[in-house]
Design a protein that fits this description.
Cofactor: Zn(2+)
Protein name: Replication restart protein PriA
Bound molecules: adenosine-5'-diphosphate, zinc ion
Distance between the termini: 53 Å
EC number: 5.6.2.4
Family: Belongs to the helicase family. PriA subfamily.
Number of domains: 7
Radius of gyration: 30 Å
Catalytic activity: Couples ATP hydrolysis with the unwinding of duplex DNA by translocating in the 3'-5' direction; ATP + H2O = ADP + phosphate + H(+)
CATH architecture of the largest domain: 3-Layer(aba) Sandwich
Helix content: 25-40%
Number of strands: 37
Length: about 800
């Protein structure tokens, strides 16, 4: 008899689907396993079993499951519970959470593109049987760059090619096409050793004698022995090449003569190459020790804790003590960071303490690397028991989670903006921790107003560290009045002479400089001096940004670009001027002012590659780079030892941003970037260039008055009804047709007002109201404390139902952003 099961598909539909499965296979099935199922006319999806033995569907005839893809559940009941919470809280579908939560490689579907792996073929040749499906696929991939799985299906004349594809993936014959096309198969590393025939002492002596006329080859052998450290430690081919400093040809000659032997090993990607010898934890100073003890106390009361410690107060050291305790108890630890740049630096720091137990998890890793970490956690191995990750690490299959750390908790990037689920990793982590009864520690030198409010009202425990480690003073801050400097002609380009001289002085002391400008590109605006025309993006309502290096105008919203024209497209005049300042121009001016200085830029444009971050960060750490110019990327928790000066090119763009959070963010950004200066042995200096030197926020930044900023912001939010005093749901309507968005938004807002009255703002155009040729309009729903959230969401959902029933509106996209920040 057939059984029926309920399957979750990774698509944005608000329901699951029922499939049938024969008796004998049903017995092998568990909830949380993946199955390959047909969907629609000819599509094939990977779905997740969420219910066993349900009733047959009434509205349609159940199709049969093609194949069970797992031997044991990939997703636990607890994960599924977490997903359900997320879908409901953030108003999206379970399928959308599913798609975000598991590495893409677990979700093969008919559209997934796979590619051949030429390395594999080079190594193994083509499979023996030319008629085997593997051979067919590999041959087809010799002629085509990529094949969709559906195409493979027709190629091998099977309706279900997923098992075949999975098998070939596992064997390393093919790869899934990825954006950051990094190798898919377990990484093969080449090693070298002496050919076994020279194991005997006598044979080796004989060899060295015969080689005496080939000094280069002898040298290679000696280097090899040295690297083997007398214990036959495996030596990577690349390592030997580097040691010898010659080309590979000498090594190749030795291999050809059967003196050296090359062999490959599969290297686990998350492996750690250092020794197993862990460094000891740093002893804490009295203030850090008190903080640690207080944190433990709050943990015993099961309260999340906010650690508010000034920059370089040693928060990371305090975390390390807690991590160490959890790992000793055999528990897993999740350490969230807002930015991949941070994982680069922290992984290294934590590996010193916790060796191979540390594993990074983020979106720049290949699918294979992410899948490996998934399995490690599931098996609850000691390896990879401390996960250092960006927000998506939250979805990993923990087995015994014992501690969550959320570093730089104030960072916006913890909130997923697009696509759904638009979750806040900090808030979701706090919820998830309750499942495990695991303690949660939030840390920041500039806590978000929300978290500080939670701490002040007792929902979180509050722990403070006021002193930098080692008694180093917080950097000395100075505001530079740009209007004054221009008037007195004390400017070179965008550098005031005060800033220029401070750079000279800092470099003379052999210290490094960070320059912060929160815009990339050369200059944000190109303007015609005669008619005032500003070239805009044809797809979006924004002006194009000039990128000098490529002599291009680029849209930062959709990526549109075109060469910079020599004359105005409106009036033909050739008098074009650039306005505003981007990181590229700062770097160019710097090169003119300091031609001898080695500078680097860190922004979205320079960090696209997989290893781009690490290269810049390592270069700065090694002091090969003297000046680092960057956007907000440089503000986030980086720990460099030798930065003497931080210069903020222009603080005003941060002040004048139209958002209820603008001042809070400005305070955070400036304080954080300032915090990169003078972290270790001496007091650093910060220079802030601005047209508004008397602005309240800048005063609070320079005097380190977080408390003052908090009080003022809280008061304003109370007055104007913003978080943490109310909750926000932002509803965005999107469509190609301007009129339709107009009408639909008006209808939706009207209906919301019937229920929520004054709690509805808008509809309004966002600052950029057309993106990729789609018009946007927004409505903000404010939910006072005390008004039940679930009921509110239900009301909104009911309005959505009526909205969708109007044929004219049905094609308008509705996007919910719960706890919009
Ligand atoms: P935060 O995370 O608060 O910004 P860090 O933990 O990065 O601060 O500390 C700043 C610097 O001071 C780091 O280089 C760190 O190694 C050092 N440091 C902090 N506390 C100690 C300690 N107890 N012993 C030794 N070094 C410390
Ligand atoms: Zn655009």
């Amino acid at each position: 008899m057939d059984h029926f099961i309920e399957v979750l598909l990774p698509i944005p539909l608000a329901r699951n689907f029922t499939y049938s499965i024969p008796e004998e296979q049903f017995g092998m099935l568990r909830k949380g396993m993946r199955v390959a199922v047909p969907f629609g006319k000819s599509k094939l999806y990977t779905g997740l079993v969420v219910e066993l033995d349900t009733d047959p569907p009434t509205a349609y005839e159940a199709k049969e499951v093609y194949q069970i893809l797992d031997e044991k559940p990939l997703v636990s009941a607890l994960q599924l519970r977490f997903w359900k919470w997320m879908a409901s809280y953030y108003m999206c579908t379970l399928g959308e959470v599913f798609r975000t939560a598991v590495p893409g490689i677990f979700l093969l579907e008919s559209e997934t593109q796979v590619m051949g792996d030429s390395d594999w073929v080079a190594e193994h040749g083509t499979p023996e049987n030319p008629e085997s499906p593997e051979s067919l696929v590999l041959r087809a991939l010799e002629h085509q760059k990529a094949l969709a799985i559906s195409e493979i299906s027709s190629l091998v004349e099977r309706k279900n090619a997923l098992p075949l594809v999975n098998r070939m993936l596992k064997a390393g014959m093919i790869r899934v096409q990825e954006k950051l096309g990094d190798g898919y198969r377990p990484k093969q590393v080449r090693f070298l050793r002496l050919h076994p025939s020279f194991q005997e002492e006598a044979a080796l002596e004989e060899l060295l004698r015969t080689l005496s006329r080939a000094p280069k080859q002898t040298e290679v052998l000696l280097h090899l022995f040295q690297l083997q450290q007398g214990v036959n430690k495996p030596v990577k081919s690349t390592e030997l090449e580097k040691q010898v400093g010659t080309s590979r040809s000498v090594i190749k000659a030795l291999i050809d003569k059967d003196i050296l032997e090359e062999y490959t090993l599969t290297q686990d990607r998350i492996s750690y190459s250092g020794g197993e010898e862990a460094q000891k934890l740093a002893g804490l100073n009295p203030e850090q020790q008190v903080a640690l003890d207080t944190i433990r106390g709050f943990f015993r009361e099961s309260r999340p804790v906010l650690l508010y410690g000034v920059t370089a107060s040693g928060k990371t050291e305090v975390y390390s003590h807690l991590i160490s305790e959890a790992l000793e108890r055999g528990e897993q630890v999740l350490y969230l960071v807002p930015e991949i740049a941070l994982t680069t630096q922290l992984v290294y720091r934590l590996q010193q303490l916790f060796t191979s137990r540390v594993a990074a998890f983020h979106s720049r890793q290949s699918q294979q690397e992410r899948a490996e970490i998934w399995y490690h956690l599931q098996r609850a191995e000691e390896k990879a028991s401390l996960i250092l990750g960006a927000r998506s690490a939250l979805f990993l299959p923990f087995k015994n989670l014992g501690l969550i750390i959320i570093d730089e908790e104030h960072e916006n990037s913890y909130k997923q903006f697009d696509p759904a689920p638009r979750y806040h990793a900090r808030d979701a982590a706090i919820l998830m921790a309750t499942y495990w009864e695991a303690p949660v520690l939030l840390g920041s030198a500039t806590p978000s107003v929300e978290s500080y409010h939670n701490a002040k009202t007792g929902k979180f425990g509050l722990v403070t560290i006021r002193q930098r480690y080692g008694g180093i003073l917080l950097p000395e801050m100075e505001l530079i009045n740009l209007a004054d400097a221009y008037r007195k002609k004390q400017m070179s380009g965008h550098f005031s002479h005060r800033l220029r001289d401070a750079i000279i002085e800092t470099l003379a002391q052999k210290r490094q400089v960070i320059l912060f400008q929160n815009r990339r590109g050369f200059s944000p605006i190109v303007e015609c001096m005669s008619c005032g025309h500003v070239p805009g993006c044809p797809n979006c309502d924004v002006s194009l940004t000039y990128h000098q290096q490529r002599r291009q105008l680029r849209c930062h919203y959709c990526g549109f670009n075109r060469p910079l024209e020599t004359e105005c497209q409106a009036c033909g005049n050739t008098n074009l001027d650039t306005k505003g300042l981007g990181t590229e121009q700062v770097t160019a001016e710097l090169a003119e002012l300091f031609p001898e200085t080695r500078a680097s830029r860190m922004d979205l444009d320079t960090t696209r590659g997989k290893h781009a971050f690490s290269r810049i960060i390592e270069g700065f750490e090694a002091q090969e780079i003297q000046v680092l110019v960057g956007t907000q990327m440089v503000t986030k928790g980086l720990d460099f030892g030798n930065v003497g000066l931080v210069g903020i090119m222009n603080a005003d763009t941060l002040l004048n941003y139209p958002h209820f959070r603008a001042h809070e963010r400005c305070f955070q950004m400036l304080t954080q970037v300032a915090g990169r200066a003078g972290r270790k042995d001496y007091r650093g200096k910060v220079l802030i260039q601005t047209y508004n030197p008397y602005h309240q926020i800048l005063k609070q930044v320079t005097t380190g008055d977080y408390e003052g900023m908090y009080k003022e912001q809280l008061y304003e939010r109370e007055q104007f009804h913003y978080p943490p005093k109310v909750r926000l749901i932002k509803i965005t309507l999107r469509h190609r047709d301007w009129n339709r968005v107009e009408e639909g938004a008006a209808w939706f807002a009207r209906s919301l007002r019937v229920v929520f009255d004054k709690g509805v703002l808008g509809p309004e155009y966002p600052p950029v109201s057309r993106i990729r040729n789609q018009y946007h309009k927004q409505i903000l729903v404010k939910i006072p404390k005390g008004q039940p959230l679930a009921k509110t969401k239900n009301s909104i959902k009911r309005i959505e139902k009526s909205f969708d029933a109007i044929s004219n509106y049905r094609s308008i996209r509705l996007i919910y952003n719960v706890d919009y920040i």
